[in-house]
Each structure stands twice: as structure tokens, then as C-alpha cells.
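Q: Protein A?
A:
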Amino acid sequence: MIPGYTGFVPKSQNYFSRTYAETCREALSEFDREQRLRFEKAAVPDFTPKHSSSLPERKVTPPQIANLTPLPRYNTALAPISKEASPYLSPEAWHPHGSPYFMDNENPHKYFISGFTGYVPKARFLMGTGYPITTNKALIQFNQEINKSDPGTFPLPGEPRVGYSLPPISTIYPSNLGLLPSYTGHVPGYRFQYGHTFGHLTHNSLGLSTVQKQMAA
């Protein structure tokens, strides 16, 4: 081996205080001698017995089943009423708690677990706490606002919808006004208009076409 070889040299850990070439030569020679001796021993069959034959023979006798005394059969004092035992029903078994929207405000399960991707009303403006605490506060605030309104407007699950009506929804695109500049939603036809203010270009977005708005300007 030339100096600088970084591979493994078997038996090189047994030689030191020599040059690298001498160390590798002696190590490889020792490794080659061990390999030759191992191959020679493997080629000669070994006929020596592995176990001594001087052990005494064991006499195995069949079990004396006929001499065993049979055990008496006892009957219980109570008569069985069924062949199989009835299944166990735990008194503390898990039951679904229902929707957190309709739980009482004092219910400890009135929250959404972390990872819930649905909409939670009033949770947008709460921050600085964990998701379960945030959703709990948001749902309580939402229920308080619902209770202040007409109770018959929002029926609970399972109740008949007698006199049920949706709350009035404000118009998104007014016909007589333009939208506020901070509005970030979609405005039909707005992407093809330019040269005027946001309020002017969003005036009566659903009633006038892009060409009519440009002509009116």
C-alpha cells in the first residue's frame, strides 16, 4: 500500500513504529496466513463424536392414568339463567357531546379542538390564547349576542321551524353607492376598469356593464 491510502487494512492495528509500507506488508502477511489456516481446517473433515455415549439410558414409562382418582363434580348453588354472560356496560362510557354551538356557556366541552378548519364566529378578533380557549370565548360571545336577539329567530336542532326566517342580509353591491376603498372582495368587471377612483368604478357594479360605466364617466 502506498502512503495516502485511506482504506481498511486488516491487522494493521497490531503494528506500529514502522513506515506505512512496512506496516501494511506485515499486516497483510499475517492476514493471509490466518486465511490459509482457516481454509485448511475447513477442508479436513472432523469425525470426532460431538456427544459422549457414556450417558445412562433413560426409561420413559407411560403415565399411570388408570390409578388417578377422579375428582368429584360440584354444582353451584345458583341455577344459571343464561349460557353466556351479559356484556359489560360502563356507566362512564363515552357519549357524543353534541355541537359546541348549542352547548351551555358553562359546559367545559364548549370549544373546538386544535386542527378544526371550519368557521368559528367571533374568533377572528381574539388572539393571544390557545385555540380551544379562543374558540370557547368566541362561542360564548356568539351565544350572548344570539340571546339578545329574538329567541324565535334561531331554532335549536330538533325544534320545528315555526315562523323561522333568516336575518336580513345587507346588500354587498349597492346600486346607488360605490364600495369603500378597504373592500377586498370581488367586484364584477372591476379588473377591466381604470382611470377613476375605487368608489366611482364600483358604483352599481351589478347594474352597469364595463362599457356603460366608461361611457358614463
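Q: Protein B?
A:
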Amino acid sequence: MAAAVRRERVEAVIIVGCLLVGIGVGMIAGNAGAGALIGLGIGFLGEALFGRGRTPWSRSRSAE
């Protein structure tokens, strides 16, 4: 149980970290809004690649 909670926190850190880096780069480039969206997109891609290993839109066993 504790390992699952830690794993979810790591995923949240990936998204938030990429978002903050995107905002910083966007501020340097002169467009923080675009940087935030790019950082958020990269964060979601990173979460998908390094996430819990779940497949999106899959049916759970409890639904069967």
C-alpha cells in the first residue's frame, strides 16, 4: 500500500516538475502560457512512459 502511494507521488512530481520547467522556459522566451502548456504536455507524456505501467482505457477485472 505504501509503495503504491509513493509511486503516485512520483508521477505527480513528474507532471508538476515538467510544468514548472515549461513555465520557466516560457518566461525566458516571452510566452509563459505556451511554455506552461508545452511543459504540461511533456509531463503527461513522461507520466505515461514512466507511470504505473497501466494501459489507458483498459477494462478492469472488477468490471467483468
